[in-house]
Amino acid sequence: MIVTLFVLVIPVFLITSNVRWVIAAPFLYSYGFDRYDIPERTGIERSELLSAAGQIREYFDNGEEFLDVRVTQNGITRSLYNEREILHMKDVKTLVRGVYLIHVSSAAFIGAFILIGLWFLRRQFIPYLARFAALGGVLSVFLVGLVGVVALAGFDQLFLQFHLISFSNDLWILDPNSDYLLMMFPEGFFFDATMWIAGSTVVEGIILAMLPLLLRWFSGRRQSMGLSELVHTSEPSPEVSPHK
Q1: What's residue 239's pLDDT?
Q2: How many helices (H) and strands (E) does the chain have?
Q3: Beta strands in 26-147 (DSSP E)
Q4: pLDDT digits (tens, 9 = 90+) for 178-226
Q5: Ramachandran bin of 43, using left for φ above 0, alpha for ψ from -120 to 50, beta for the remaining angles
Q6: Is 218 exposed, middle or buried (0-12, 13-18, 19+ CB in 10 A)?
Q7: Res. 236: pLDDT tops 70
Q8: C-alpha distances in angstroms, 153 versus 146, 148, 192?
Q9: How crowded is residue 162: how many other Cβ atoms within 10 Å of its Cβ?
Q10: How far is residue 85's CA from residue 32's CA, in Å, rounded to a whole number?
Q11: Distance in angstroms (rounded) separating the CA atoms of residues 80 and 41
């Protein structure tokens, strides 16, 4: 039972790790702003947009209840989002903090599983751990690959269902022509973020799936090197003839 739970927790840990990484990655925001020409759409300079993105990332980590993003536009510093957008971001923060909690909890479980296994079985636990982690890696690739296929087939519907499931109100229904939150972060931005998360998780899953092979290769290499050293040390030393 505990092993099954460990395998199931692996994809949870990988996905939530990559979600945290994507949320905190400044390059993703600059990439999205450039790709979707957000300065032109919003009338806000790129540097101010990057500042706004930084304020959003900080908001997810601080104790503030409401988001107050301030930018300078046409020489005037003002709050960027309206009340509806701010209330929606409060819901988003709750969701993000929930993801962070799941990430920390899954990491704690994985760490405890490994430590307990090593405590009782010592080095004998390592091959078992490699196999269990490999199963988790395969499961991660399968699950993310399945979601990736669905996203490629119809991301708009997947995005809609995500909002319907994640939020208990309709504050997320905004106007892309007047609400800056949607102008800054169009659907394409979230599609790219999803692909980054999926791609990173697949790569990590593949690496985990290869752990038993890597372990066997490493063990075989160590045995080969040990045998070579044994043969070398057991060879008789050449006799040295005395000088006349």
Answers
A1: 55
A2: 9, 2
A3: 70-73, 76-79
A4: 999 999 999 999 999 999 999 999 999 999 999 999 888 877 766 666 5
A5: left
A6: exposed
A7: no
A8: 11, 8, 14
A9: 15
A10: 20
A11: 14
